[in-house]
Amino acid sequence: MTILAITGGIGGAKLALGLTHFLTPNELIFLANTGDDFEHLGLYISPDIDTLIYTLAGVVDPDRGWGRSEETWHCLDTLAYLGEPSWFQLGDQDLAVHIARTHALKRGKNLSEITDRIRIALGVKYRILPVSDDPIRTFLHTSIGRLSFQEYFVKKRCEPTVNQIEYEHSNACLNPRLDLSELEGVIICPSNPYLSIGPMLAIDSLFEFLQSTRIPVVAVSPVVAGKAIKGPTAKIMQELGVAVSAIAVARHYKELINGFIVDESDIDSVPEIESMDISVSAYPSVMTTLQDRIKLARHSVNFVRSLSQQ
Amino acid sequence: MTILAITGGIGGAKLALGLTHFLTPNELIFLANTGDDFEHLGLYISPDIDTLIYTLAGVVDPDRGWGRSEETWHCLDTLAYLGEPSWFQLGDQDLAVHIARTHALKRGKNLSEITDRIRIALGVKYRILPVSDDPIRTFLHTSIGRLSFQEYFVKKRCEPTVNQIEYEHSNACLNPRLDLSELEGVIICPSNPYLSIGPMLAIDSLFEFLQSTRIPVVAVSPVVAGKAIKGPTAKIMQELGVAVSAIAVARHYKELINGFIVDESDIDSVPEIESMDISVSAYPSVMTTLQDRIKLARHSVNFVRSLSQQ
To answer: What number is the average pLDDT over the span B52-61?
Structure first.
């Protein structure tokens, strides 16, 4: 039986790495967000998938959390010199992945096939499935207009105020490689619920599966003590008029989950979340070291398994 | 009035650089070969145009004669690691040009517009016109079958025996930006007559112009003392059953030129070339230093101008 880990980029990838330290490739499968994917300078870029692959392959830049370690930027510097947009950071090694992916897409391969090839080449033994092989795209309606995800996130550095999030996917299908019948449980990684997990849940069949399945579905809170662990989660929740709290995240996922992991510091929120008919576990969930990641990952799997025995 | 320099890659670019040292951007225009252009990993690559731009911009690698100096190869190494073909050398800085060009072509720009943008960005003040904005492609029929130019030249390192050269260009038009009426003379640079100049001359209107014009057309021999200065010229001439000599090159161009520059060491060939009704000038034509290039360039222009006064 297999654990499905639903994940976005940096935050989710940390827990993902922890999971690979004790589950085998048969016991674990990743479903990755593609709502951030975009075309830039003619290259098809899948930031969350790349972050996940680089993290699991051990080649991610440890400080940035994205892109490759020991990266160089000679191509990007030259692109800027030629007057091309340089706001999106394209490292020289990273570029190879974008070139290979774009070329393969042009030859008719789908994103799953390409992801498989790249992660295998980089030595990642775990299956990584794009949530869909069809395009899904996240747009943000903001104080300065409707922005694509990367325009908002990278070009505008999350500065505009977000009024609404739009998930565009004309009937995108859940990745058909995902065999739901082999799953023993689901972990929603501590990625941004709106920007990273949201686009995936906007695919009806995934939402409906999580809503109706009898296997345990556990989310790990990306909000700790009223602050987001990483990125613009807190800012966006505020702007959307949601309290920045583990409780609000639990409420956001409430139809889909039967287990929720909050940080120890949010122990006070347990009764309120439990009142939503959700089992709650409080555990240290700030992942600084690799050991933190493995511990939280192990705790998450144990929690899933304990719920399946109820 | 303007000198038109018709040029291929490395050999021609040396003379081209010499020309820029005393002619102004109004007095000189380059017509560059695109028969070597190809798509590789989804990128549109124009090797001869790039060599010319890099040479004129002073950023060409001085040892290789192509690509950029102080180049790095991190993207190419990663492409190889991902299992992508790595026989074509894509430097990290060089890649930026391919990405920018490919992206612009996709957006409907033509090769002339893109070439202009790239050479201007790199500080080249001289006009560089692709011989055509339409695709032209050189193929070689060889001992191991029909090969595209880059397959023959780079992948197979010119090793297969050449039986025949094929210039494929479905009615490609001579670059309409080239104003033939402004020309005072033409210099055919010492590029490979078959691989670099041949594809350009296969465009009927260019061939016919050179054949019928009253302005002087001077070729500089790429063969010196029975050897090619650079690349596979000698090998190909042999395989095509042509003597490797300045005389054979003059005979090859005979319908088009009225002036021919041979190296001093080929002074014995002058009478035979003159018997083809071609004026001949013997001059040191091995370009080792920048001074050699400038001297040969100046001599070529003087020779053109002397012929126009006859």
So the answer is: 97
Q: Do the Cβ atoms of A92 and B74 come within 8 Å?
A: yes
Q: Are strands B217-220 and B28-32 parallel, antiparallel or unpaired?
A: unpaired
Looking at beta carbons, which residues of chain A come within 8 Å of B121? 81-83
Q: CA-CA distance, A167 to A149, in Å (whole number)? A: 10
Contact between A138 and A167 under an 8 Å Cβ cutoff? The reply is: yes
Residues from B in contact with A at Cβ < 8 Å:
41-43, 72, 74-79, 81-84, 92-93, 95-97, 99-100, 102-103, 106, 117-118, 121-122
Indicate the residue of A75, A83, A102 with minimum beta-carbon distance to B95.
A75
Question: What ipTM score was computed for the predicted complex, to two decimals?
Answer: 0.91
pLDDT on residue B54: 98
Note the pTM of the prediction, 2 decimals: 0.92
CA A284 to chain centre: 20
Q: Which of A141-150, A223-232, A297-306, B12-21 has the lowest mean pLDDT?
A: A223-232
Q: What is the mean pLDDT of residues A108-120?
A: 97
DSSP annotation string for chain A = -EEEEEE-SHHHHHHHHHHTTTS-TTTEEEEE--TT-EEETTEEE-HHHHHHHHHHHT-B-TTTSSSBTT---HHHHHHHHTT----S---HHHHHHHHHHHHHHHTT--HHHHHHHHHHHTT--SEEEES-SS--EEEEEETTEEEEHHIIIIISTT-SPEEEEEEE-TTPPPPTT--GGGEEEEEE-SS-IIIIIHHHHTSHHHHHHHHH-SS-EEEE-SEETTEESSTTHHHHHHHTT--SSHHHHHHHHTTT-SEEEE-GGGGGGHHHHHTTT-EEEE------SHHHHHHHHHHHHHHHHHHHT-
Which of B72, B76, B121 lies closest to A72 in CB terms?
B72
Of B41, B118, B121, the CB nearest to A99: B41
Q: What is the pLDDT of residues A186-237, one digit of tens each?
A: 999 999 999 999 999 999 999 999 999 999 999 999 998 887 766 788 888 8
Q: In 10 A of CB B215, how many CB atoms?
A: 18
What separation in angstroms does the CA of B307 have from each of A110, B3, B158, B215, B261? 62, 13, 37, 8, 12
Mean pLDDT (whole number) for A93-109: 97
Burial A287-299 (b: 16+ CB within 10 A, else e): beeeebbbbbbbb
C-alpha B178, offset from chain centre: 17
pLDDT tens, B126-178?
Answer: 999 999 999 999 999 999 999 998 888 888 888 999 999 999 987 899 999 99
Q: Quote the CA–CA distance of B10 and B193 in Å, as a whole number.
A: 13
Collect all residues with Cβ–Cβ distance below 8 Å to B57 and sequence separation of at least 6.
B119, B122, B123, B124
Burial class (CB in 10 A: 0-12, 13-18, 19+), A45: buried
User: Given this model, what pLDDT does residue B310 score?
Assistant: 63
